[in-house]
Amino acid sequence: MTDPFGFLRTPRHPVPARPSPERVGDWNEVYAGQSLLPLVAGQARRCMDCGVPFCHGGCPLGNLIPEWNVYAAHEDWYSASERLHATNNFPEITGRICPAPCEDACVLALTGEPVTIKNVEQAIADEGWARGHIEARPPQRLTGRSVAVIGSGPAGLAAAQQLTRAGHSVTVFERADRIGGLLRYGIPAFKLEKRQLDRRIGQMREEGTRFCPGVDVGAELDVAAVRDEHDAIIVAVGATQPRELPALGRELTGIHQAMEYLEAANRTDEGDCTRPSVTAENRDVVIIGGGDTGADCLGTALRQGAASVVQVDINPMRSTCRSEGEPWPLVHPGIHRVSHAHEEARDRHGADPRRFGTTAVRFEADTAGHVRAVCLAEVEPGNRAPRPGTEQALPAQLVLLALGFLGPQHGTRLTAGLGLVPDDRGNFARTADFMARMAAPQEPTAESLPKGVFVAGDAGRGQSLVVWALAEGRSAAAAADSYLMGFSDLPTPITATDRPLI
Ligand code: FAD
Question: What's the start-to-end Cα distance of the chain, in Å?
Answer without folding.
Answer: 29
